[in-house]
Amino acid sequence: MEKFVVHGPCTLKGEVTISGAKNAAVAILPATLLVKGKCHLENVPDISDIRAYYEILQSLGSKITFINKNEVIIDNTNVNSAIASYELTSKFRASYYLLGALLGRFDKVQISLPGGCNLGARPIDQHIKAFEKLGATVEVKSGNVYATRKEKLKGAPIFLDVVSVGATMNAILAATLAEGTTVIENVAKEPHIVDLANFLNSMGAKIKGAGTDSIRITGVSSLSQKSSYSIIPDQIETGTFMVAAAVTKGDVLIKNCIPKHMEPVTAKLIEAGATVEEFESSIRVSMNRKPSAFSLKTMPYPGFPTDMQPQMSILLCVCDGTGMIVENIWESRFQYTDELAKMGADISAHGTTAIIKGVDKLYAAPVKSHDLRAGAAMIIAGLVAEGDTEVYDISHILRGYEDICLKFSKLGANIEYVNDDTNEVNSCD
Ligand code: UD1
Fold this sequence. Notes:
The chain is α+β, with helices and mostly antiparallel strands. 30% of the residues lie in helices and 26% in strands. The chain folds into 2 domains: 2-19 and 233-427, Enolpyruvate transferase domain (UDP-n-acetylglucosamine1-carboxyvinyl-transferase, Chain, Alpha-beta prism); 22-230, Enolpyruvate transferase domain (UDP-n-acetylglucosamine1-carboxyvinyl-transferase, Chain), CATH 3.65.10.10. The protein has helices at 22-31, 48-60, 86-89, 97-103, 125-133, 165-176, 191-201, 235-247, 263-272, 309-317, 337-342, 372-384, 395-398, 404-410, and strands at residues 2-8, 13-17, 38-42, 63-68, 71-75, 108-112, 137-141, 144-148, 157-159, 181-185, 206-208, 214-218, 229-230, 251-255, 275-278, 282-286, 295-297, 322-326, 346-350, 353-357, 366-368, 387-392, 414-419, 424-426. It is globular. The two termini are 21 Å apart. The model has no long low-confidence stretch (mean pLDDT 95). The site of uridine-diphosphate-N-acetylglucosamine has 20 residues, from helix 5 and helix 6.
């Protein structure tokens, strides 16, 4: 069995460089399918979700050439199938972006119903609604999604009932090559949505308003890439290191990030007592005292990101006073609180609310990664706790964090990757 062993406590100090954004890359990789030719991508994170995407693209006929582990050329000239393997697409949620991208190019598309982190019910009704508005027929049967069109998709007004990152990106993908104009209202505004639009626009798409409440897409007949495209830095990886720096009472310069994207996290860290200095493409976080209690509510961007709430909870576990987290996006996102209780946290979660009373210390325990971000929170808890924290189910963490063990190790953490089956122990330095 694979695990990370974190020998705590420690104080993080030094510099860390952030990788490309997972949530942008998982939409931009399928977006390359809209081009009957080559796309050159830089700053692509080397994480298991992205490696899974390469496998899917290759199974459809894409030729992928690696310049290095973060830079690829994807040639989709010979893609001639839009029937994606159930085995490959059911592994992770973001495979649903294949629907929008492939519908732009093919009459019949098939993928599995999305898998991924267990955060509660994860409906795709708004994605389906968007495709149907554009003229496609969508059927969900036996664990698969079948989308068909008799002719080219036609631009249309689309009003999303809920603010959904996935549905917004899928609607953009499907509308890019549609005939006529599509206006999508009540859209999500996350940085990765803007990045997807920028990538498509760099190839000749006509997408306006990404990052605002309404996105207008004038369909074009084809796309072609003139120069390489670099994916934005990962907002959540940045936030994870910001929290880790603060809670370990450290001093860390986080490089290759976009401070503007971090505003909701920065504001909460300052409220907790951290010092946050912003530079053009880096952020320095330091802290020299016990965190003050705070409350936060997760909201769509520019609100506080749901993907940062498990990590922020570690600050509250050792804060002065009692804080509260309200989760408004995913109903099952507090499963990780049972793991923190094993480490001595005073935490009670009911429904969408967790109340956390600060304790003097956390103590090492064997803990599970319930999902990707919860797993990152367990590592941070291990950095603060006394003793050797064993973090299990790390495949979740490896889906979304490139070289996480190495990056923490370079900041002074004593962390090892251990594989009990092969007796491998890697001190990550
Ligand atoms: C969401 C987060 C994203 C985060 C990701 C993984 C928001 C707005 N989105 O993105 O930041 O990276 O989880 O944690 O914060 N919904 C429907 N019907 C649909 C699609 C979604 O009802 O067709 C609902 C979901 O149940 C959820 C909400 O809308 O309550 C947001 O979902 P959505 O943004 O689509 O999820 P992700 O794209 O996975």
